[in-house]
From TrEMBL:
Organism listed in the record: Cladocopium goreaui
Keyword annotations: Methyltransferase, Transferase
Pfam short name (any one): SpoU_methylase
GO biological process: methylation; RNA processing
Protein name: 23S rRNA (Guanosine(2553)-2'-O)-methyltransferase RlmP (23S rRNA (Guanosine-2'-O-)-methyltransferase RlmP)
GO MF term list: RNA binding; RNA methyltransferase activity
CDD domains on file: SpoU-like_rRNA-MTase
SUPFAM superfamilies: alpha/beta knot
PANTHER family: RRNA METHYLTRANSFERASE 3, RRNA METHYLTRANSFERASE 3, MITOCHONDRIAL
Record bears the keyword Cell membrane: no
Domain (tRNA/rRNA methyltransferase SpoU type): residue spans on this chain: 125-262
Domain of life: Eukaryota
Length: 278
């Protein structure tokens, strides 16, 4: 049953619980991202994924007067994750806006994702080398999942951008992927190479256009928005790809990555994967 929060004292305590309860040292040692997510479509994905493995939802804040559909959805998610649904007066929810213009009256604190073991993930791979815009990351991930790429390797800088803004930009599809936090990305890439995974870097300075690959045993590296793929990571790559453009390099990283992922996987059957790659 949803609880109503009307006074300032109750509100302050619930916000402290919402933001702080999942940020315990134990979760940080497990390399789990803790953030506040939002939007009804993200909640729908969370419900469909049955709360996600190794995930904690502390509570879901809704605007008092929220639709019965949204309250029911929030309750279903909280029943799965053992959280609480809290209804807030409008002036209280307005205070909890953080750094974005909230379009929907729902917020929830979530401990997600937990870093997976590389050996348990399926090819093909998306590798994010220092991508630091949550908006770009979310858009890249939405394209990746919809194109059948759900195994993602990230540097710490990119992993730290798996927040509410990224999830909203992905329209909740972020929840469909598995993530491996690579504190040393070249080490992770060398593990892929030993497993005969071909590693491609998306770099506009190279003249070779992206083309379909005969199997799923590949990884695409996408670099930082300004600096591109780091030199030490480029040394680990087997080949370099670009998206030819008539008027120069004007595509942003999300668009270029989507084209590369589509072209690399174009010759594969839908849902093609290699579950055991070692």
């Amino acid at each position: 049953m949803a609880k109503k929060i009307r006074n300032e004292g109750q509100y302050r305590q619930q916000i402290r619980d919402l933001v702080g309860a999942t940020g315990c040292p134990q979760l940080r040692r497990l390399n789990t991202m803790v953030a506040v997510h939002y939007s009804q479509v993200c909640l729908q994905h969370l419900k469909r994924r049955r709360g996600l493995p190794a995930t904690s939802v502390v509570s879901i804040l809704l605007l008092e007067g929220a639709s019965s559909e949204l309250i029911s959805l929030a309750q279903e998610v909280c029943d799965i994750c053992s959280g609480d649904v809290l209804l807030l007066a409008p002036h209280l929810l307005d205070e909890f806006c953080m750094d974005v213009a909230w379009g929907e009256p729902v917020r929830y604190a979530i401990a997600w994702p937990r870093s997976c073991e590389l050996e348990q993930m399926a090819a093909p791979f998306l590798v994010l080398d220092g991508l630091v815009s949550a908006q770009n990351l979310g858009q890249v991930m939405r394209s990746a999942v919809l194109l059948g790429i759900t195994s993602v390797i990230l540097t710490r800088a990119s992993f730290n951008c798996l927040n509410g803004r990224a999830c909203h930009a992905s329209q909740g599809w972020l929840y469909e992927a598995e993530f491996h936090l690579a504190e040393d990305l070249p080490v992770a890439l060398r593990s892929l190479k030993r497993a005969q995974i071909c590693i491609y870097a998306a770099e506009e300075i190279h003249p070779k256009a992206v083309s379909p690959q005969p199997n799923a045993r590949w990884a695409l590296v996408v670099g930082n928005e300004d600096k591109g793929v780091s030199p030490e990571v480029l040394e680990c790559c087997d080949d370099f790809l670009c998206v030819p453009q008539v008027r120069g390099a004007s595509l942003n990283v999300a668009h270029a990555a989507a084209i590369c992922m589509y072209e690399l996987g174009r010759g594969l059957p839908l849902k093609k994967s290699v579950r055991r790659w070692l």
